[in-house]
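Record type: monomer structure entry
Structure origin: computed from sequence
Chain ID: A
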Amino acid sequence: MHILALADKLRAALPKPVWEISRKTANAVLGPLHFSLETGHLRSCLKSRAMDRHGGPLPWYTYPAIQFLLPKKFSGKRVLEWGGGQFTFFWACRAKEVVTFESDERWCNALAKHKPPNALIHSVNKDTSNVEALLNRKRFDVIVVDGLDRWKCAERSLELLSPDGAIIVDDAERNCGPKPGYGCIDLYRKAGLSRIDFYGYSPGNTTQHCTSIFFRGGCFLFRGVENPQVSLSFWKMV
């Protein structure tokens, strides 16, 4: 029975004062538990991997950012990841092609053992000094900055982004630049990109942070062609 249907039955059966106490207690205690089960947060904590409640891969972004991305259509899109992980499989199941650069060779080899056929995973230098030949002058619809030298990756991403594409920066509240301030945010602001911040918790974590999406006018993510959907189940949206 759905939790809302159960609540309706209890409200009809209980005296009003008892119902009010029960409702408030349930909201305080069961609300966080329901969130943890529905989103897969509990499962992510136990498995130490970002996943939905069915075990499908999720990125380590905040849940509001995940909810925003899940109903979007990425078929035919190309994704570049600076840093690989659970989100590599998330993007590979949704996009036409995923190119991942990872500086930890052991982690790169571990990812490569399970990579889907449309994912290319490359072991590169952390300072991105050896990625030019691998990029092959490609442009990408989605670029994820979440590893390696984040500042250099953020800089390189500007020239690699397609005109209607988007750059996703996780943990955007941190400074990754060479000077005090907000490195990526200041960089992309000066480049004329717009930004939307998604604050909240992320899979398997107990503190809130920020996932930011940077884009130019006409970005495909903000055309509104899909209807709003409330779901954190990866497999229902693929």
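Annotation 1: The chain has a mean pLDDT of 87.
Annotation 2: The radius of gyration is 20 Å.
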